[in-house]
From TrEMBL:
<dbReference type="InterPro" id="IPR020904">
    <property type="entry name" value="Sc_DH/Rdtase_CS"/>
</dbReference>
<comment type="similarity">
    <text>Belongs to the short-chain dehydrogenases/reductases (SDR) family.</text>
</comment>
<keyword id="KW-0560">Oxidoreductase</keyword>
<dbReference type="InterPro" id="IPR002347">
    <property type="entry name" value="SDR_fam"/>
</dbReference>
<dbReference type="InterPro" id="IPR036291">
    <property type="entry name" value="NAD(P)-bd_dom_sf"/>
</dbReference>
<protein>
    <submittedName>
        <fullName>SDR family NAD(P)-dependent oxidoreductase</fullName>
    </submittedName>
</protein>
<dbReference type="Pfam" id="PF00106">
    <property type="entry name" value="adh_short"/>
</dbReference>
Length: 234
């Protein structure tokens, strides 16, 4: 599709990959609704990049239903969902509480499912749409301390495959991107502290560019899944 025809809802759109992707789409002539929990930050970012702000906590089913309904009203032809909302919860197995594990799944997995479900209903009616799930290389291989986060991303990958099978007959492309470490606020939000900028590691714009490339492939084809790694991080 032409990026100028993209009318996207981007969850987790107030910073990092979500913000960078929304900006890239808007700069190319498309439209973007960005969603996140923090209303003030969201509205500030929306004003900065020319997006529409719709606050939403993706763990709330009623808020998700309202979000998609409002997106359909705001955009001329809602046709792209970028499922990007998520965070990391890192703890060794012996220290991991059921509450923390459940909270991680509610955002990264169940939240993504609910936004995709409501969006798919609209896309099916139009016999066209695109869903891109932002996963992680942690969804391909586990690591020490990653039980909750890794589980949420492995589950997202499994759901992506199910949705792809169900929605292809309706001309809906379901895709997944797996970034390795990206220099955003992710580490700080995960309680691991801020890290100095490293020019050899990925930045949010790298992932935004990849997402836009996936969308810009002519509609007769699609890229089911891709991973993005830093070439030689130091």
């Amino acid at each position: 599709m032409e990026l100028s025809n993209v009318n996207a809802l981007i969850t987790g759109g107030s910073s990092g990959i979500g913000k960078a992707t929304a900006k890239s789409i808007i700069d190319a002539g498309g439209q973007a609704v960005i969603a996140a929990r923090s209303k003030d930050t969201l509205e500030e970012v929306a004003s900065e990049i020319g997006a529409t702000a719709l606050p939403c906590d993706v763990t709330s089913e009623s808020e998700v239903i309202s979000l998609v309904d409002q997106t359909i009203q705001e955009l001329d032809d809602y046709n792209v969902l970028i499922n990007n909302a998520g965070y990391g919860e890192f703890s060794r197995l012996v220290n991991l509480s059921a509450t923390d594990f459940e909270r991680q799944l509610k955002t990264n997995t169940i939240g993504a499912m609910m936004v995709a479900r409501e969006s798919a209903k609209h896309f099916i009616k139009n016999d066209y749409g695109n869903i891109i799930n932002v996963s992680s290389t942690a969804g391909k291989k586990g690591f020490e301390g990653g039980t909750a986060y890794v589980a949420s991303k492995f589950a997202l990958g499994g759901m992506t495959e199910c949705w792809r099978s169900e929605l292809r007959p309706h001309n809906i492309r379901v895709m997944q991107i797996n970034p390795s470490e990206v220099q955003t606020k992710f580490s700080k939000n995960a309680g691991q502290g801020s890290r100095p900028f490293n020019e050899t590691k990925l930045v949010a714009g790298d992932i935004a560019e990849t997402i836009c490339s996936m969308l810009s492939l002519p509609d007769r084809g699609f890229i089911p899944e891709t991973s993005v790694w830093a070439t030689n991080p130091r």
